[in-house]
Structures are given as structure tokens and as C-alpha cells.
Input
Amino acid sequence: MSGDGAHGGRITSVLSETRTFPPAHDHHARVGSMDAYRAMYDRAERDPDGYWSEAATELWWARGWDKVVEWNPDAPSWDATWFVGGKTNAAVNCVDRHLAGWRRNKAAILFEGEPGDTRILTYAELHREVCKAANALTALGVTAGDFVAIYMPMIPEAVIAMLACARLGAPHTVVFGGFASEALADRIRDSKAKVVITADGGWRRGHAIALKDNVDHAVPGSTVQHVVVVKRTAQSVAWHTGRDHWWHDVVDSASAKHTAQAFDAEHPLFSLYTSGTTGKPKGILHTTAGYLVNAMQSSRLVFDLREEDIFWCTADIGWVTGHSYVTYGPLANGATVLLYEGAPNHPEPDRFWQMIERWRVTTFYTAPTAIRAFMRWGDELPAKHDLSSLRLLGSVGEPINPEAWMWYREKIGGNRCPIVDTWWQTETGSIVISPLPGATPTKPGSATLPLPGMIVDVVKRDGSRCADNEGGFLVIKRPWPSMLRTIWGDHERFEKAYFSEIPGTYFAGDGARRDSDGYIWVMGRVDDVINVAGHRLSTMEIESALVSHPSVAEAAVVGRPDDLKGQAIVAFVTPKRGITADDALAKVLRQHVVEQIGALARPEELRFAEALPKTRSGKIMRRLLREVASGSKARGDTTTLEDQSVLETLAQSFAEE
Ligand code: PRX
Output
């Protein structure tokens, strides 16, 4: 990249190429210098078994492992097994083992509800609640291997429910509360969940959102035998006697004594549904020990966790970020996490800054879309609050544009806090590429360098390495402990989706380039996955939702660059013959998508077309539609024009097959 600023709209690239921020000088950082990082990285590359084995000794084990990893580089999907023969329990690692010393009385969870109510749970209290919930689930017939669906607002019971399941070896599948009943039903069906844990609802922008009602629509005819309901908003709910149980009845009366069993290192810990290119969302399966090793270690390395930290990751537990950096990673380290139930702009758009001031948050981890929204709401909002407790800021979920990065650094971090832009995925389980605070000089817009043990590259379609600054595919070249093990119930799809595209590698689905310092610049997805406000959606899934409406003959969905959300959803729809294509229909169809998937999938724009452009073999010409949707040139400052066209070329090389 020339960095000469000659092209209008290229200001983002110019910024990112010319400014490098030295790491904050910090004597206490875990990895205190670039030399220390390099030494650690090289060591992990030379001796991965030794490196991961050392990381794993940080966990509590009922039985040690016989072998660090078994995998087959020549098999269609590596099929790695980690910490072979080892036995452990994820909940014991996150809770019980902190009870032996002074952490027993340390706050594990600081909770603030949207109405302003607060609750603090020490590790001892969390332990009691998790044990009671585990006993209550056992009484409802849950045993190791049974799936439990969790459909909850961001309240302490959500974390307690996850840990209770982990304690029993019952894999959880958390479904984001913003998903509609249809989407919940799909996930229940696919995981064959036996129990659903939910709440009557949660508070969002002053309203009591209904959750139980969606569960009532999703459960009939499924494998679900029991529904456990936390009373949060006290709204009235329908009740199915025998099936439904109030949390406060079954959990509060349960014994607080529970002896946890140790499970195999590879025992399933959770599945989490995420969108792929084709078909229904896929259940990404993570197992116990490997996942926890990476979640715990990356929390310490990337967030430089300290005992006195107040760690606030704003992600909902319905996403992988909430799994790894609200629940498992921080709690395995004995850290204090802040949990917030509601919207960032309720009652006022400075709610987050108020909360940082009130709780003296030290570490704040959020998504670029949120940062861009905060920018719009104005500098005076953060300026009104004392944010001096902050010492580290993180970003995740989508590419962060340099302008947002700079704003975050100046207005929130007071030019004092390092920013960690962390690249990873539901599939990777934990952070793969990120600066280490105190070690890595940062460049706004780059996730910088891989963590030790993560062998990352940018390659061409044939697997050969790209030249510096040449756009290519982001791949990982060796298994790592927290990698997904399979797609639940569809191992073939797992092989095909991640291992068949680029020989000998795990292919992430992202386009990227590596600059001459080896820094990775992630550009975005090259498949039919779109990233709207940090939420990952499949264009195909939205198309199926549209086509399921009786008025629709055909639909095609594409993403177009959006200043706020990164990408916005544009739908092209051909109505059935005789149906009038008007604004009223457009409104109905957009709402139909909300009912099928959830508000997060509502098309920003819906255009009617008499026919969709197709190739001779009948494939929809998405490139053309993307061009139409964006206007002839890319809009917005979230992606450079240059990156946009590189991405388009990379995407095309998939579409042509
Ligand atoms: O495209 C990348 C983008 O989010 C995708 C993964 O989405 P999901 O599985 O929902 O997990 C999100 C939270 C880990 C990736 O394929 N992505 C995530 N982090 C970044 C990113 N893109 C650019 N920069 C990031 N830091």
C-alpha cells in the first residue's frame, strides 16, 4: 500500500500505515517486551507440546494427561484430541478451586441490571449457587452428555446456569436472547436439548422483553422435557404444569452440597450455533480441557489480568465472546467480572461511562459497532465521567476502522490505555491474533500478531504464502487446544467447511493481508457470511427466511458497507406472480425475517426485482448485486476502497467453483 493519500476515501489506510503506537510501558505486564513475546512465540513454534503442556498445568486436573495432542495432518480435518487421558471439570476450575484461599471472599460477579439494581456474588456465593443449580438440574433428570439450552438475559443466573451444566458434564447451548422462537426451535431441535433454562424476560430500554413466550412457541414437539424459568421482570407468563419450573422453587430449595465429577478432557463442554455459508446455523462443538486452557491463558496474556482488576466484556453470553471472556476465561483466572443486563443507551447514552466510573472498571472489551455508536453520540458524554480507572481497552467481532480506534484510544483510554484488537471466531474458541499489552507496538486497524502457539498465515487459494501486503486468505496451520472439534451431528460439513478449501490448513473464512512487519490486517469475510454490528449472519439463512413467505418467489441477500454497523443487509426479492410489490409488502417481509430469525437479521433495505441476475448455470450473480447495493463504489469509512475490491476478488474465487 502506497500510503500517499492520493486516493480520496483512502484516509483510513494512510492513517493506519503511518502511525504506530509504542506499547505502554508496564513493569507488571505478563509479557513485558517484544523480545519476550518473540522468545515465547519461537518457543511455542519449536516445541508446541511443551508450550501447551505448560499452559495446561495452570488448570486443576483430577488426572493428568498422557499425551498433549494427537492429530493427523493428512486426515480430512486433523481431528485433534488434546490432553489425552486427562480428566477435569470446567466448573471446578472456574469456581471451586478459588475457594481454598482468600479468593473465596473475592467478588466473582458484579451485576448491574438495566433498572439500576445491583448484586455482587463472591466466589463462595457463586459456588453455592452453581452447586444448587447443579442439584436442581440433576433432580430434573439431567445427566452427563445431555444438552441444555440456555436462553437468558445477561443476569447472574445465566453464568450460574452455564457453570451448573459444565459441572454436570451436560453441554450447554446458549441461544442469544435476541433470536426469535423459530431460531431457538432450530437450535433445540439440532442439539436435542432436554432442558431449557430461561427467564420470564429481561429489561431492554425500559421494556420487559419476553423470553418465556418464545420458549413456549419453540418447545412443543421437541425433545425438551423441562423448562426452568428465572423470575426477572415479573411479567405474566403462560405456565405448563409439570414441564415448567420456577428457578426460585427448584434451585433455592436444592442442597448447596454437590460433588463434581471429573470428565474426560475431550468431554463436550458446549455447542454454540453460528452461521456458515450454507444451510442452517451450525453447532460449533467445544470440549472441556483444551477450550479452558486457551480461554484461561489468552485472558491472562491479552488482558494482562490482575487480581484487583474489574473486567468488563460487554458481549452477551449468547455469543462466543461471552463464553470465553465473560464466563470461562476470567473466572478460571479468579478474576472479577462485571455483568450488565441492558442497552448501552438507557436511560441515557452515557450509561457505559457511568458504569465504568461507578464500578471502577479497569479493563473494557467491546465491539467496533458500539465504539462507532459512542462516537456519534458525542465526545462530551465520556468527558463527563471519570474514566481514570481504565488501564486496558479491547475490541472484537469485526474490523475496527482506524478512526474508531483513534477515538477509543483518545476519548475513552485518555491516550493512556493500550488497545487490544483481538481477532478470533466462534470456531477458534479463544483469541488467535492480538497485541499483547506492554509488548506489541500497535497500529490502528491491525490485530497485529498471532499469540504464541497460533501458527497463522495469509495464503493464496493453493496454500502458497502471499507476498507482503498482498490480499489473501487467513489460515491457521496447526491445531490449537481450543479449536472446534466438529459441527454437531455433521462431521462431514466440518471437514468441508474448514479443511477442504485450502490444502493443509484451517481456513477461517476471512480475507487479510500481512504487512512488512508481519502484522495482520483482517479485511472481512470472503464467503457468504456477513457481519452486521459484530453479529455474524448467513446471507443464505436470511434468503431462506424470505422465501418461506408465501408472497416470495426468490430472494438474494448481500451485505453493503455501512458506516455504523460495518455491513448492512440488503435484500433483493422477486415476488410471486400476481403479488403487488409495494412498500406494504416490503414492510411485511422485513418483519417476517424478524419473526423467523430475530431483529438482528432485519434487512436494512428491501428492493423488489422482476428477476435476479443469474449466470448461465443458474447461479445468482452476487457480485453484481453487491455492486448495486453499494452504489457503484464502496460507501462508508469502515473499509477502504482498496480492501473492498481485494475482498471482492477473493470472494469471487470461491463463487466461481
Ligand atoms: O470476520 C471475522 C470477524 O468475526 C468473525 C467471527 O465471528 P464470530 O464467530 O461471531 O466471533 C466473533 C467474536 C470472536 C471472523 O471470521 N472478526 C472477529 N474479530 C475480528 C474480526 N474481524 C476483524 N477484526 C477482528 N478483531
Remarks:
- Residues 274, 320-321, 396-399, 421-426, 447, 508-510, 522, 524-525, 531, 536 surround adenosine-5'-monophosphate-propyl ester (CB under 6 Å).
- The first helix runs from residue 11 to 18.
- Confidence is low (pLDDT under 50) at residues 1-17, 633-638.
- The longest strand covers residues 552-562.
